[in-house]
Structure formats: C-alpha cells, structure tokens
Automatic annotation (TrEMBL):
<dbReference type="InterPro" id="IPR000257">
    <property type="entry name" value="Uroporphyrinogen_deCOase"/>
</dbReference>
<comment type="similarity">
    <text>Belongs to the uroporphyrinogen decarboxylase family.</text>
</comment>
<keyword id="KW-0627">Porphyrin biosynthesis</keyword>
<protein>
    <recommendedName>
        <fullName>Uroporphyrinogen decarboxylase</fullName>
        <ecNumber>4.1.1.37</ecNumber>
    </recommendedName>
</protein>
<keyword id="KW-0210">Decarboxylase</keyword>
<dbReference type="InterPro" id="IPR038071">
    <property type="entry name" value="UROD/MetE-like_sf"/>
</dbReference>
<comment type="pathway">
    <text>Porphyrin-containing compound metabolism; protoporphyrin-IX biosynthesis; coproporphyrinogen-III from 5-aminolevulinate: step 4/4.</text>
</comment>
<dbReference type="Pfam" id="PF01208">
    <property type="entry name" value="URO-D"/>
</dbReference>
<feature type="domain" description="Uroporphyrinogen decarboxylase (URO-D)">
    <location>
        <begin position="144"/>
        <end position="160"/>
    </location>
</feature>
<feature type="domain" description="Uroporphyrinogen decarboxylase (URO-D)">
    <location>
        <begin position="24"/>
        <end position="33"/>
    </location>
</feature>
<dbReference type="InterPro" id="IPR006361">
    <property type="entry name" value="Uroporphyrinogen_deCO2ase_HemE"/>
</dbReference>
<keyword id="KW-0456">Lyase</keyword>
C-alpha cells in the first residue's frame, strides 16, 4: 500500500527520542464534541455509526486538521476503545456515556464472549477508515491508531459502564483473580491483533489508553495490568516483524499510574509514555531517564481559564519538560482528553503557545 509522502514527521521523531525544532503537539479527543462541525455530523448520525462508517470517521478525524492547519502535528483516527468489547460479542450503547445492557456479572458469563475474534471481520471498518484517512491527509501529518488497555476494557465490561468506585470490577480481581487474569490476557490478544491490523492499514504510531490504571493499587497494577501492557507491546512488535512490516512507535498512557513510570520505561516496551497533570514533567523525566519519550501533560481544564492562564501554563509546562535545552523526546499534549465545552479558539491559542514556547 503506498500513501502520499509525509510532510511533517515531528511527532515520529519526538517519539523516537530525537531532538526536534519544537515540540510536536496534538490533543486526546481532538476530533470531538467541542467542535461545531463534529456536532453537525452527530446531529444525523449515532456515535457508533460514525465509528463504523469509514467516510464519516475520516471526515471527523480530519476536521481538527482542517481547522488547525499548520498548528497540529498529528491526526488520531476517530474510533472508541469499546470497539474491542463489541468485537468480543458484547453490546455497547452510548447514552451519552457508554452503557452495556448485558455486562459480565460472574466468570460464568465469560462463556458468552466470542472465542476467536477475527479482527478483520469484526473491526475491518476501523482499518478501512485508517486507510481512507491516511490518503485524505495527503501527508500533512502522521495518523495515530489506538486501542484501550485490557484492565480499562475489563472494567467497562464488568461494570457495564463508567464507575466511581469500580466495585464490581475490583470484586472480580480479588474474588476471581485467576479468571480475571485469564480474561485480561484474552483481551490483550485481541488488542495485539487490532493494533497490528491498524499498522497494516496505515497507522504511523499506536497509542494504548489505560484510562483507569490509577484506580489500581501499585501491587494490583503489577499483577493485573502491567503483564497485559507488556504482552501488547511485545506481541505487536513480534507480529509485525514476522510479516516483514516495519515497527511503528508505540505510546502507553496509563493515567494515574505515575508510580510505575520508571518500571514502564525499563520494561514496558513502549517508545513513549503519556503522563497526566498530577506529576511534574521534570520529575517524570528524572524517573524515566532517556529510555523513553514523554507525552503530556497540561490539565485539560486550563483551557477554560482564558488566554493568560493557557499561556502561563504552557510556558511552565515547556520549562519543566525541557529546562533550557531544545525539545527532545517530548510530545506536547493535555494530561487527558479535551472536554466538550472548550471554545475551539482557546484550543487554537494552546497550540500557538506550544509553538511559541517550545521552539529552539
């Protein structure tokens, strides 16, 4: 498959730990509800319909690139982490948050899941959207593919939606640890196949979102999440190598698991670690050394603080990530996804400030 040549490779160079003329920047959920053009598409199309229709997924993926041309350094395919539970045979609705009408209540319910998931059959629409988007981008910026991490997906599958306490999911971990570990690895296997398929379709960087990593005690993170994250990074690289496909950089965002940064840098197998706003970037860099690149980490709510606050925080973030040196191995981002009520012009200002304060 041949694609238009890439004109802006800042993201890929930073992900490989290289020095860059400025920090590349993108934001999680950049194709989303804060954009009026996205809301217009959603007026006539249900959420998962957009995910499953390559033309619509391409359009909404490109909307922020179109709006912020010359300011944004990456596109991320419009999809959802919960397409994996769907591929495993579970029903998921958006109301407006995720809702599973028939969650996994006991380990006996695991029998309801699809045994051997054929990602090409179940998730081929994501691959089609990636190929279509990669062509439509005309090489302006690289395209990121992604999936949810097994613990985060497991939590949704057992809880039946989002949760404040994770009581059901954690009851499983503590009451049925072996069954939980087995199911987590089964989810990890689907993640590997899904990510490999995304690279084949044209994804140039992969990100794994462990949104609920911070809900686990450090030793439970070690037991239940870390092995699956390692399994994904090594599995993706091995499968690509066995098919003679060049590896792409991989990012892990284990939100709230800052306690595990040094271990993830040494043994996780990822090129980039995303960090949230609850750790000082200079401290994160001290913990990981130069083993990995870092991504993050402004609090998304700063975007509601007005231009002065945004500029002040970007300047501070830049100084903490890079000190007085040129940016090296740093991808500027938020510490979590952008939220729906942000004014698109305030996000534009965030991008402009990153350009201003991270240039050599």
């Amino acid at each position: 498959m041949t694609f238009p040549p890439l004109k802006n490779d800042l993201l890929l160079r930073a992900a490989r730990g290289e020095e860059t003329e400025r920090a590349p920047v993108w934001v999680m959920r950049q194709a989303g509800r804060y954009l009026p053009e996205f809301r217009k598409v959603r007026e006539s199309h249900e959420f998962f319909e957009v995910c499953r229709t390559p033309e619509l997924a391409t359009e909404v993926t490109i909307q922020p690139i179109r709006r912020y041309s010359g300011l944004l350094d990456a596109a991320i395919i419009f999809s959802d982490i919960l397409v994996i539970p769907q591929a495993m045979g579970m029903e998921v609705e958006m109301k407006p948050g995720p809702y599973f009408p028939d969650p996994l209540n006991t380990p006996a319910d695991i029998a309801k899941l699809t045994k051997d998931v054929d990602v090409n059959k179940e998730l081929g629409y994501v691959f089609e959207a990636i190929t279509m988007t990669r062509n439509a981008l005309k090489g302006e910026v690289p395209l990121i593919g992604f999936c949810g991490a097994p613990w985060t997906l497991f939590a949704y599958m057992v809880e039946g939606g989002g949760s404040k306490t994770f009581q059901k999911a954690k009851t499983w971990l503590f009451q049925y640890p072996q069954e939980s570990e087995k199911l987590l690895m089964r989810i990890a296997d689907v993640c590997v196949d899904f990510l490999v398929g995304q690279v084949k379709a044209g994804a140039q960087l992969l990100q794994v979102f462990d949104s609920w990593a911070g809900e686990l005690a450090p030793h439970h993170f070690q037991q239940f999440s870390f092995p699956t994250l390692q399994h994904i990074s090594s599995g993706v690289r091995q499968k690509l190598a066995s098919e003679g496909i060049p590896a792409v950089p991989m990012t892990l965002f284990a939100k709230g698991a800052n306690h595990a940064l040094s271990q993830l840098a040494e043994q996780g197998g990822y090129d980039v670690l995303g960090i949230d706003w609850c750790i000082e970037p200079s401290e994160a860099r001290r913990l990981v050394g130069d083993k990995v690149a870092l991504q993050g980490n402004m609090d998304p709510n700063v975007l509601y603080g007005g231009k002065d606050a945004i500029e002040r925080e970007v300047k501070r973030m830049s100084e903490s990530f890079r000190g007085t040196k040129p940016p090296k191995g740093w991808i500027a981002n938020l510490g979590h996804g952008i939220t729906p009520a942000v004014d698109p012009e305030d996000l534009r200002w965030f991008f402009q400030c990153v350009h201003k304060y991270t240039a050599k």
